[in-house]
Design a protein that fits this description.
Helices cover 37% and strands 15% of the residues. With 202 residues, it is an alpha/beta fold. The chain is globular and about 40 Å long.
Length: 202
């Protein structure tokens, strides 16, 4: 998967070439496998068990993913109580898949996922400055501890990568994100499937 990769940072994460594309719509990987509406980007903001298979058998899903406009890289879970090596391993896995998809002709947007403060800088290794990145805010803003960790990490990511645009899966409340917009960063928000489904029920 990484035989042609180049690496960055102390932990040698595979480098991801920059993209400047903005997704028009998003679809979860688990749904993308049976969908025939390919004019959208595939995301992995769902439970890990829904997409662990792409790590185990990436080639099995290559032709399916090629049909879509592009892919936001896998969002393997990083919990604050995980040992650091496991947090780094899940960042590595996302980047390895991203490199492999790129060399197979698929556009990708790097998903920047961090766990505790030790990963704030490392999660940016191998990502080019001034390009489009993605983050998942769903579930990270409701409780103060989660919110503080998420926003502190996001500040570091913005400082290090200075992205042209950030695709946010979840919510991006003005009181937290307006300062980035004021700094000239485009924030593109896609509501989570959970929020959308609950609104439809109501």
């Amino acid at each position: 998967m990484v035989s042609l990769a180049t690496y960055a940072g102390f932990f040698e994460f595979p480098r991801i070439r920059p993209t400047y594309d903005i997704p028009n719509r998003l679809i979860a990987f688990s749904k993308a496998l049976s969908c025939k509406d390919y004019d959208q980007w595939v995301h992995f903001y769902e439970d890990d068990h829904q997409f662990e298979r792409i790590w185990r058998q990436p080639r099995k899903y290559l032709d399916i993913l090629r049909h879509y406009n592009g892919v936001i890289l896998p969002d393997f879970s990083l919990y604050r109580d995980m040992p650091l090596v496991m947090q780094l391993w899940n960042i590595y896995r996302s980047r390895a898949i991203g490199h492999w998809l790129q060399i197979n002709g698929i556009k990708v947007i790097p998903n920047i996922r961090y766990g505790d403060r030790r990963t704030y800088h490392a999660c940016c290794d191998g990502i080019e400055k001034h390009c489009v990145i993605a983050v998942g805010s769903h579930g990270n803003l409701k409780h103060k501890i989660d919110r503080d960790i998420f926003l502190a990490g996001f500040d570091v990511v913005i400082q290090l990568l200075q992205p042209s645009a950030v695709v946010v899966y979840g919510s991006a409340p003005e009181k937290y994100f307006q300062k980035y917009i004021d700094a000239g960063i485009r924030i593109i928000v896609f509501e989570s499937d959970y929020s959308t489904s609950h609104r439809e029920v109501e």
